[in-house]
Amino acid sequence: MTVQPAAAERILATYRERTKRSQELFARAGHILEGGTTRTSVFFSPYPCYIAEGKGCRITDLDGNVRIDFLNNYTSLMHGHAYPPIVEAVTRQIQKGSAYAAPSELEVELAALIQQRLPSLERLRFTNSGSEAVMFALRAARAFTGRRKIAKFEGGFHGSHELAQVSVAPSLDKAGPGESPHSVPDSAGIPSDWADEVVIMPFNDIAAVERILDRHAGTVAALIVEPIIGAGGVIAPRPGFLQGLRALTAKRGILLIFDEIISLRVALGGAQELYGVRPDLTTLGKIISGGMPMAAFGGREDIMALFDPRQGPPAIPQSGTFNAATVCCAAGVAGYGAITPAVQAHIARLAEDLRTRANALFRRLHVPAQVVGVGSLFNIHFTEAPIVDYRAVARGDRQTLSLLALALMNRGIFLAPRGMGCTSSVMTHAEIDEFLTALEGALMEDLEVTR
């Protein structure tokens, strides 16, 4: 699909006209914060809008533009913004202190709630971020197995440390053959020998996974996977794929790690409950702390014993000034605790309605695009090829997708420039109706799609 330059310029001009205060603040920020922001993921061209307030499922920027928030801080908000039970819990706790150099009852309460919903976490520990959770899970796998290499999937995002930021979004001219991808660092500063320790595999191809693991026999400590690839395009596993990974890793003495930082929101017990697979270790984040900055990792008791300080210095020391900060735990107990089967069903129905109607609209307008997803997660892709792996996503029309996202912003809809979004518990079908109205207007009037 080709978007005429004049149409693209009109979309950009409308955005600039409606976000003048954001433009001014971004210019100022550029002299203070390198790149104008401390989150690369929130930057988009020509500049990001600055949010002044969030209430329920809507956000308001500095210029007073109100948008329905279908991004929810990159899926971390199950109940939208300023959810009253979370506000009350955080307010109550912060009056008692936000963090202590000691454990709290709330830490135990939240951990017990997580363990109840994810029985595979026989023991768990909290961290400040998902990147830290993954880092410690991988370190535990290496220590437990005595092996060095880590296996991950092309397009899978597991944080920003050296063993994770490899082949997340590689250029296809450097990525190698699809059935045996190359290991490509995604950041300067990652030594080549670190990248060489990361074995890259194609998602949804169990035969290729088996061949690659056999090629590295006896050297792989862990295979880490997003059971539903999130940031890479909301890619669902093919039937039997995750079960196949469980069998392959168990046979080879490789620890299976599920990164459920995003996929936890698809079921009360995450994707491992939805697909019936029990990993050795799991990393969690986002929704477990009600939108506050906290994450966790855990799994088999014999592996997690590496962190136990009760018999002297642990094999793996793990500390953090704000690990399990009481204010974060309070938000988690209130927010994560408010997720019920009824809430799960509600947000899944909303997203399924969005996907079904959007795909019907694309077909009616003969637009080569689709919306895929699982549960409350969805992602728009400008390609008609089946979305089964990273390369299917990478071959889509990303330029048109980013223009569509900007056009939707102009029409009151907020989602990621890469087309990712999710529903929240405070949404209704009225918000889905608004999304579809905005999508049709953006396609026909802004991108100038003709029937």
What are the salient characteristics of this protein?
single chain, 451 residues, alpha/beta, Aspartate Aminotransferase, domain 1, Aspartate Aminotransferase, domain 2, 2 domains, seven-stranded mixed beta sheet, four-stranded mixed beta sheet, 16 helices, 14 strands, 39% helix, globular
Give an overview in words.
It is a single chain. With 451 residues, the protein is of the alpha/beta class. The protein has 2 domains: 5-78 and 340-446, Alpha-Beta Complex (Aspartate Aminotransferase, domain 1); 84-338, Type I PLP-dependent aspartate aminotransferase-like (Major domain) (Aspartate Aminotransferase, domain 2). The protein has helices spanning 5-18, 20-29, 72-75, 84-94, 105-117, 130-145, 192-195, 206-215, 241-252, 270-275, 301-304, 326-335, 341-364, 390-394, 398-410, 429-446, and strands spanning 51-55, 58-61, 66-69, 123-127, 149-153, 198-201, 220-225, 255-259, 281-284, 295-299, 370-374, 377-381, 413-414, 420-422. The strands form 3 sheets. It has a 7-stranded mixed β-sheet with strand order 4-10-9-8-7-5-6, sandwiched between helices. Helix 9 links the parallel strand 7 (220-225) and strand 8 (255-259). It is globular.
Order of helices and strands: HHEEEHHHEHEHEHEHEHEEHHHEEHHEEH
Flag low-confidence runs. Answer: none
Oligomer: single chain
Strand runs, count:
14
Structural class: alpha/beta
What's the CATH architecture name of the largest domain? 3-Layer(aba) Sandwich
Q: State the shape.
A: globular
Tally of domains: 2
Spatial sequence of strands, sheet with the most strands: 4-10-9-8-7-5-6
CATH class of the largest domain: Alpha Beta
What is the H level of CATH, i.e. the homologous superfamily of the largest domain?
A: Type I PLP-dependent aspartate aminotransferase-like (Major domain)
Largest sheet: 7 strands, mixed
Secondary structure tally, helices: 16
- Briefly note the CATH topology name of the largest domain: Aspartate Aminotransferase, domain 2
